[in-house]
Amino acid sequence: MTELTSNIAKLNGYLERFRKNGIQNLIGGESRAALSGKTFETVSPTDKSVICQVSHGGAADIDAAAQAAKDAFPAWRDMPALQRKKILIRIAEGIEARAEEIAFCECWDTGQALRFMSKAALRGAENFRYFADQVTAARDGKNLQSPTLMNVTTRVPIGPVGVITPWNTPFMLSTWKIAPALASGCTVVHKPAELSPLTARILAEIAHEAGLPAGVWNLVNGFGEEAGKRLTEHPAIKAIAFVGESRTGSLITKQGADTLKRMHLELGGKNPVVVFDDADLDRALDAVIFMIYSINGERCTSSSRLLVQDSIAEEFQAKLVERVNNIRVGHPLDPKTEVGPLVAQEHFDKVTSYFEIAKQDGATIAAGGEVVGDEGYFVRPTLFTNANNKMRIAQEEIFGPVLTAITFETEEEALEMANDTQYGLTGYVWTNDLSRALRFTNHLEAGMIWVNSENVRHLPTPFGGVKASGIGRDGGDWSFDFYMEQKHIGFALGHHNIPRLGA
Ligand code: NAD
């Protein structure tokens, strides 16, 4: 039996209950069908087969979930920090115990390759452990003495919050948002992406098995324009943590305006990787390839624009073409697979439309540019060359295993092109000239920049983008700033002079 055959057999075991019972919402600690009784299908991008039926939550289900989160809030907020910490650690342990099931279901639901998803499942556990460690200090504040007052600050959880997540690495991203929310003392209503409901359900189950009180974490499946919209408008929900496309971020900001929602938006990117001729070119090549072709290129931090200095461009691109043509496209559960199928028909149509757009723009398809078979949504890893920064393939987020290479002559030109985009999530700079690295990163418009490195996440560092890539930061204490309110209390030190009116 090959490893793939044995993995498929295991997957079938994990899917059995979903096939039999479908996926229900989880509200107030109870599994519930949608109030309308409606369901929708989730489909595997590998063979277009229906995985299972999913409860189609709408406004009424969100109302029930928001009420449950509101009711559960005071007790969760007031639970001693150490008790909350223990629950979060038990959630991390639950994730670790079911990491294979999570990874396999994620691969089947989203088309992601197992080599990346097994790590993503464990990263989810790390997120819970990391924020569990911060729980006891999260409410600490400052003592700011004035001549007349002892001024004390503290942080308090903002209240029930909504978490809206996308379909790319949905499990890891859900933990990244929900773990700090719970650590802060907030209760949660989670609306996962309609294209990837499987692991969101497993995660909520793990949380309940870990002893999380009913109503602290509520899960409502449904579509953005119904369930998602109601969540952003609900008066009991005090903040929305959103990960998704820039135009959706703009929509939900409008939807949340009437109830003055606090918003944290992690949005799209068209991130540059800039390779200067003095760089370690072998390492740069590895990083360029990894940061666009791993995770099917369906990754907000992917380096989808390669800016390469013209003195080395020909040689660098030739090596790139050779490696890109060697990338193994295949079944997501085959451990050898490097690129799996794209998540769904609509996204497949979007990504493949850029093959024609590239030609119309006048670029060259140096590798890929074609689909693979017709059983699932597979495309060949693609490289566009002879491009310029004004082309659509250089400006629009394609969100697939598709790289646009552009050459530059001078540092100034590279900087101008790197910044000439609506987005500003990440940037990657490859140079061995320290002064240049300092100058360049100083002027590069991005929330996160790596020099001589691929994206390596360190959980205490701030994560987020500028321009159309988002508003707000996650990570370390920045997460607590979002899910908590600062509170100031002034205690009079004695009998200071109080102005007397009408005396
Ligand atoms: P999307 O914006 O289409 O959907 C994201 C979520 O929003 C889904 O759950 C969807 O149902 C919901 N939604 C849609 N319309 C809504 C509405 N009107 N009101 C409330 N909710 C609504 O994004 P996607 O296609 O699922 O994900 C891919 C996008 O996410 C890419 O642009 C990618 O760059 C971005 N992303 C960003 C980050 C980051 O950290 N910056 C991380 C991952 C993904």
TrEMBL record:
Record keywords: NAD, Oxidoreductase
Gene3D superfamilies named among the record's database cross-references: Aldehyde Dehydrogenase, Chain A, domain 1 (3.40.605.10), Aldehyde Dehydrogenase, Chain A, domain 2 (3.40.309.10)
Stretches assigned to the Aldehyde dehydrogenase domain: 37-489
Xref: Pfam families: Aldedh
Protein's UniProt keywords contain NAD: yes
Active-site residues from the entry: 266
Signal sequence extent: none
UniProt cross-references to InterPro entries, sorted A to Z: Ald_DH/histidinol_DH, Ald_DH_C, Ald_DH_CS_GLU, Ald_DH_N, Aldehyde_DH_dom, DH_HpaE
Coiled coil residues, start to end: none
UniProt family annotation: Belongs to the aldehyde dehydrogenase family.
Record-given protein name: 5-carboxymethyl-2-hydroxymuconate semialdehyde dehydrogenase
Provenance organism: Parasedimentitalea maritima
